[in-house]
Amino acid sequence: MLRLALADLWHERVLFLCSALGCAAVLAPLIVLFGLRQGVVAGLRAELLDDPRAREVVSVVNRTLEPALFDRLAADPRIAFLVPRTRALSATIVIENPAREGQGVRMELLPTAQGDPLLPGLVPGADGLVLSATAAERLGLRTGDAALASVARSRGGEREVLSLPLRVTDIAPPAAALRDSAFATVPVLLLVEDFLDGTAAADARPGSEAEARARPFAGFRLHAARLEDVPALDREFRLAGIEVASRAEAVAGLLRLDGNLALLFLAIAGAGGAGYLVSLGVGLWAQVERKRRDLALLSLLGLKRRALLALPLIQAAAVALAGAVMAFAIAASVATVLNRAFAGTVTGDRPVCLLTAGMGLAAAGVTLGGALLAAVLAGLRAAAVPPAEGLAEG
Amino acid sequence: MTALLSLRGLHKAYRGDAAPFALEVPEFDLAAGEALALAGPSGSGKSTLLMMLALASPPDTAEGFGFAGQDVLRLWREGRRDALAGLRAGKIGVVPQTGGLLPYLSVAGNIALTQRIAGRPDPARVLTLAEELGIGAQLGKRPAALSVGQRQRVAIARALAHRPALVLADEPTASVHPELADAVLALLKRECAEAGAALLVATHDPERAARAGYPVLACVTHAPGEDGVARSVFTRAPLAEAA
């Protein structure tokens, strides 16, 4: 059966080649278009994802947020990382290199915890500190060095200083912080805040993590699990009256672009693909008419109906597969040219047209499905040819 | 023994060249291995009868239609086309009027076609048949490269390749020149006898068939009656039933 169908195709290989080329001619631009969509979206997405701050949502106004809210947020599957923060005004600290006394630098004190996307793999620990690259450079501190953190308050006209000897456990990656800043665990931030509020003595030391988490906080910093979750989280916080800052706009823009490009692709692929499938179906139908005598003869020789039905189906499948392979080859070379021409412009150093083997398989699968659908009518027609025509004089 | 083929009270209307025709077969039996020529003028319904015998078209009405132990009438009535196709594939060989070879298969492929459809591949038999029919040198060629007579012999080889019980030939000599016609008829008869297959040849030339050693069954034609339908009758005394 298969051999019969393929022998027929081989006999008329010029016609077969034309059909396959026709298929490739429609398919190749669609694959390129799809690759462009993938490349542009993947490029923009990767650019966003490269920046760990893209998934960040930070509350910007000081409120009193109860532990219950933090428990609820921690249980939300859309939130990958959550850390509470103290009031912005009490989150500054002076860090000093013990080797260069009197040259302390005032910087922002940021909370961190296990699994912080800004500090991948880095946790400062209870008496540790992660410095931003700029801060470490200005202070001349390196990983493992001792540092002195200090906060000053005036109480009854008298200046009091809280001094914490800490160790620099790591230097933060450049993307984590542009300005001078120091990352420390929540108990350190709480101690600073309590000291400034006057509820802690100058010789107090950071409490435990569990104690800290039982207290209300002024705000939080969280990272969404997926880029797509950022706009929804941003909207929900605003609706709940918690003012937040995030890249929701940029992410929503990317998602909108993704959706629009998908729609554009569907429209073009739908129009082009449907047109081609109709022409393939009509072509196969005409083929059945042309080969009516051969088909009748095969039926007369005892070929069963489903075998006759299979003839145009096999041939359509062969055309579709050959077409898909050609189309992918053409698309791949076009993509190479495009990627070279657009190198470093639209999507940075990423390919503007992204083709993968999976896409090739999907294209072949869709084409195959469509071709089989188009061939079914022809197949039914072939199966209905009465065997008696095989004997009759044509 | 029972007949390989047995028709009773069969009736089929068809359109002839001008007037409507009716084909009638009151009685017709063919024993296994028997050869017979069906003679009648052009348009007398020989081809129509062969088509019915080839299980390719159903009779309008019939009292009995047995072939190789199967009730063909019932298969038609129940619409079991695949069962009919299976019977065609396994038991019947057909030599169409003009070769009817598939242009995209080689001569060997065309001859082996019936074997493949019947699911009984036998390359040795393809070779033997081709040698006997004098087309051994053409096995690798396409039908388009053959002469008319060679094509006819390929069709004969194809009809015999799967060892059918019955071979039907519709005017196998119509498209070859007279000298070759005798040879084709003789070849058919010899090959069928060798393979033990029954043979039915439709011909408009009863003398030639008789000369080739075929018993001839001539059709009786009746001019249009009151209903304006011309009738064509093939009838043959039934075989003696086994006691």
UniProtKB/TrEMBL annotation, chain A:
- Taxonomic superkingdom: Bacteria
What are its GO cellular component terms?
A: plasma membrane protein complex
Q: How does it sit in the membrane?
A: Multi-pass membrane protein
Major location category of this protein: membrane
Q: Which residues form the ABC3 transporter permease C-terminal domain?
A: 280-380
A GO biological process held by the record: lipoprotein localization to outer membrane
Keyword presence, Lipoprotein: yes
Keywords, sorted A to Z: Cell membrane, Lipoprotein, Membrane, Transmembrane, Transmembrane helix
Statement: the UniProt record of this protein carries the keyword Cell membrane: yes
Q: Where in the cell is it found?
A: Cell membrane
* Record field: transmembrane: 14-36, 261-286, 307-334, 354-380
InterPro entries associated with the record: ABC3_permease_C, Lipoprotein-release_system
**UniProt similarity note:** Belongs to the ABC-4 integral membrane protein family. LolC/E subfamily.
PANTHER family the UniProt entry points to: LIPOPROTEIN-RELEASING SYSTEM TRANSMEMBRANE PROTEIN LOLE
Name under which the protein is recorded: Lipoprotein ABC transporter permease
Species for this entry: Neoroseomonas soli
Automatic annotation (TrEMBL), chain B:
GO CC aspect terms: plasma membrane
Q: Which SMART domains match?
A: AAA (SM00382)
Among Pfam families, the record links this protein to: ABC_tran
The protein's matches in InterPro entries, at most eight in alphabetical order, are given as:
AAA+_ATPase (IPR003593), ABC_transporter-like_ATP-bd (IPR003439), ABC_transporter-like_CS (IPR017871), ABC_transpr_LolD-like (IPR015854), P-loop_NTPase (IPR027417)
Instruction: Answer yes or no on keyword Metal-binding.
Output: no
GO biological process terms on file: lipoprotein localization to outer membrane; protein localization to outer membrane
Q: Name one GO molecular function term.
A: ATP hydrolysis activity
Domain ABC transporter per the UniProt entry, residue ranges: 5-242
Q: Which UniProt keywords apply?
A: ATP-binding, Nucleotide-binding
Q: Could you say which protein family the record assigns here? A: Belongs to the ABC transporter superfamily.
Name assigned to this protein: ATP-binding cassette domain-containing protein
